[in-house]
């Protein structure tokens, strides 16, 4: 059994999830129809509303949603918000109008949480926030399934510190490209933790050597442009360490480092389910994508469906918070983790 398969099995069993206090689906955010009555499995319709489907992580997550829905015999709508707030609002209306009793929501903007929750509650729809935590209009957290973002970010920082130390690069010569995405707290929590762990783990590194830049769209093109800007404003730097809140950020930065001819003396560590990191880290020739923190979107997508099904059909308590673990990926275990 591969590391990835083992993680999938463990997640399905709930043995690696850290679950906080529970509440019933109807108490959490409106329940099946605000009456507390259970829904027949034959009548259950769910909806998966990701913020975007143009990134590999959400495609993997959707695959998990679809597979678990098929296993349970549940109809689940896949409604892409296309990284647009207005589209997300209209897609929630679509889900409600098509009879969804439960919604798996990954909001484009966490500030939309209260208004989206008000709409869902008025329609008697139960919401499970996935990946990005949100609050309802009263300031109460919505049941959440995601990751321990602070620990994951810290693991990235520790891995970068180890990589730099192993390579023997003079710390004074290093610059750190910190590609941040300030619009989402699940991203800032990761990158803030990475920064602190890197400062703690790499003796002699100074905070002024960490150059933070927000990369547009949290995608590869935005990261490429952000890294090009850092390279232009810091000519002569030969050793770069790179981190971001996802794989796209590091891949975009690596492409810029390659174009500048300093990729062989630089290292980046990303976060994601291997949609991009697997390609980079399994190349025959090593490149500047040196490590990854694996988070299993497919497993979490499946678990989200199971949690809503158990709450709405079986009347079980909907966990207030479930945190899935990450796996540190190096060149040594990349084939095992990403090999399927």
Automatic annotation (TrEMBL):
Pfam family, one: Peripla_BP_4
Domain of life of the source: Bacteria
PANTHER family in the record: ABC TRANSPORTER PERIPLASMIC-BINDING PROTEIN YPHF, D-XYLOSE-BINDING PERIPLASMIC PROTEIN
Record keyword Signal present: yes
PROSITE patterns, sorted: PROKAR_LIPOPROTEIN
Predominant location: other
Protein name (Swiss-Prot/TrEMBL): Periplasmic binding protein domain-containing protein
GO molecular function term, any single one: carbohydrate binding
Periplasmic binding protein domain segment(s): 47-316
Tagged with keyword Signal: yes
Organism: Jiangella asiatica
Signal peptide extent: 1-20
InterPro entries given in the database record: AraF (IPR026266), Bact_Solute-Bind_Prot2 (IPR050555), Peripla_BP_I (IPR028082), SBP_2_dom (IPR025997)
GO cellular-component term (any): outer membrane-bounded periplasmic space
Record-stated family: Belongs to the bacterial solute-binding protein 2 family.
Location of this chain's protein in the cell: Cell envelope
GO biological process, one term: L-arabinose transmembrane transport
This protein's UniProt keywords: Signal
